[in-house]
Amino acid sequence: MSSKRSRDGQRHRTWRQLSLLALTALTLGSANCAEERPAINRVADGHIRKEWLVGHDYTNAADDPEFYMENFVVDAPVDQTMMPVGTYDDVDRVHWEIQENLLLARKSYEYVTGSDGAGRTASRTQNGLIVAAYRIESQFDIRNDYNPTTGEPLNVVSENTSDRRWYDRDYIRVDWSRNLVDNPDWSFMFYGSLFGGLSFSPVAFDETNPRSPNANNFCEIEPGKVRDESGNCVAAPETDAALRASRHPGGYFDVTSKWLVQPEMSDFFGEPLPTCLVANFFSNGPVHSCNPQEAVIRTAFRRVVDRDFEPLELTVQPYDLVGGPRADRNGWDPGYGINDRNFHRYAMIHNIWMQSHVAPAVACTSNDDADNNGTADQCPAAHPGSQCDLVMQRCTLPYRERRVRPVAYYVNEQMPPEMQDHVVVPGANGGETYRLPTDQDPAAMTT
Q1: What whole-number distance in Å separates Cα of residue 173 and Cα of residue 175?
Q2: How many CB atoms are closer than 10 A to CB 227?
Q3: Start-end of H helices in 200-257
Q4: What is the DSSP string of 164-189?
Q5: CB 84 within 8 Å of CB 56
Q6: What's the pLDDT at 86?
Q7: Do 270 and 196 touch, CB atoms closer than 8 A?
Q8: Cα–Cα distance for residue pair 12/17, rounded to 1 Å
Q9: Is 76 exposed, middle or buried (CB count within 10 Å of its CB: 0-12, 13-18, 19+)?
Q10: How far apart are CA 198 and CA 192, in angstroms?
Q11: How does strand 433-434 pair with strand 425-426?
């Protein structure tokens, strides 16, 4: 009897051990199956973050950044000299507006100050003059796919276009091949416009070779990234994080487009003549065709950063003495329209100072100096000689307290070394030297 009980107990222990082994195997197998597999990325290239264009709050214009915008002619035919390579438009300031199917670049200021409020409203849809419009192909979020029944995430990363409304999604893909604005306010973009009318028609153009200089460049819109020789977006070479952030702050991108430029008729000589004939008469250039000509335009955008600039106004007598390139601004009076009182002319100058105004800012409205001590009465006595910048309405920093800002000039790879002069400029404290490099002097800057 005891022998039978012993055998039954042994059999029971054996089955229990087998059950434990089976359970352990199942557990290990389940854990093995549950291991995270490598992600499968199905997100296509060519997308950008919305926040880089319109800030973190997509539906509130209050945090929208401004961008400088500049257009350059980078390629043109030799049939005529009406639009030579190297001409460029005036620098403009724009902000972006994201609609469901369009990306718009609008002037961030009124074309005529006080005329219609364009560019000044704080509402979501700012109504400055549109200078560029591109078709939006898609607006999406980048996230893992998931089981629609259980909500369990999968290992597939894709473009999600359904879970949130279009204006809440984080990424957009834009068709940059064509600017949908027929005349993007290129007043003096082409040499021929000085002698008569020109009309513009956009042509679809998409350079797919990343090595081409005409390929769109979105690498530098992201902080710390640069574009290498192969056209790939890579991390900037600086190992020091602070230096990398200062040299590559992000906020820059450029796109290349093609346009057909049609010469209109010109009345320059009192009789209607094709603009191309008039332009080439003065430039003594060849005229092989007055048909529409193809021009390649590179449009560059850079996010505006406050560099504490002090404008130089030349509205009255100073312009007669100084002259030079200028920017004109007209103003609107509700009773009289555009008049001389609201007209202003500013010099086009480099910002050569690291700081131009007193910090923290001191507001002012006049340069009255009742005590004749050389300092505007509304400006702080702690900065003797401070004057009121009547354009910005802020007290200036006296010149003796300012530090010089280096102004960089950029050239392309084809510029001959013998034309790259070695320039030495003493800095504000006498110990800074900035050098323009040549083959014999590879240093970009020494201190």
Answers
A1: 7
A2: 15
A3: 241-247
A4: S-GGG-SEEEEETT----S----TTS
A5: no
A6: 80
A7: no
A8: 9
A9: buried
A10: 8
A11: antiparallel
**Residues in a beta bridge with 331:** 113
DSSP assignment, residue 37? P
Backbone angles phi, psi at 347, to 5 degrees: -75, 140
Q: Looking at 304-362, which runs of residues are DSSP E strands? A: 326-329, 332-333, 337-338, 344-347
Tokens describing residue 308: 């504490």
DSSP 358: -
Q: pTM for the full model?
A: 0.78
- For residue 386, count other CB atoms closer than 10 A to its CB: 25
Residue 251 token pair: 């906020």
Report residue 220 as tokens: 């530098």
Among 159-163, 177-181, 427-431, which stretch is predicted with the lowest mean pLDDT?
427-431
Q: What is the mean pLDDT of residues 319-331?
A: 71
Q: Which distant-in-sequence residues (6+ apart) come within 8 Å of 341 by Cβ?
A: 331, 333
302-306: average pLDDT: 92
> Look-up: residue for tokens 């961008």?
67
Structure-token match 């992000």, residue found: 250
CA 51/CA 47 separation, integer angstroms = 12
Identity (one letter) of the amino acid at 192? G
| Joined tokens for residue 310 | 């002090």
Which stretches of 264-342 are DSSP H helices?
275-283, 317-322
Rg value, the chain, Cα: 32
Under DSSP, the state recorded for 371 is T
- The b/e string for 299-332 (b: 16+ C-beta within 10 A; e otherwise) is bbbbbeeeebbbbbbbeeeeeeeeeeebeebbbb
CA distance 29 to 24: 8
In Å, how far from its chain's centre is CA 6? 86
Query: Token pair for residue 53?
Result: 């264009």
Over residues 152-181, mean pLDDT? 92
Tokens of 245: 């952030």
Q: What's 84's DSSP letter?
A: -
CA 368 to the chain's CA centroid: 40
Report residue 277: phi and psi, to 5°.
-65, -40
Widest CA span in the chain? 133
Do 446 and 435 form a contact (C-beta atoms < 8 A)?
Answer: yes
With a CB cutoff of 8 Å and minimum separation 6, the contacts of 412 are none
Q: How far apart are CA 262 and CA 306, in angstroms?
A: 39
Phi and psi torsions of 321, nearest 5°: -95, -40
Domain ranges, ordered by start, for the chain: 47-303, 321-401, 406-447
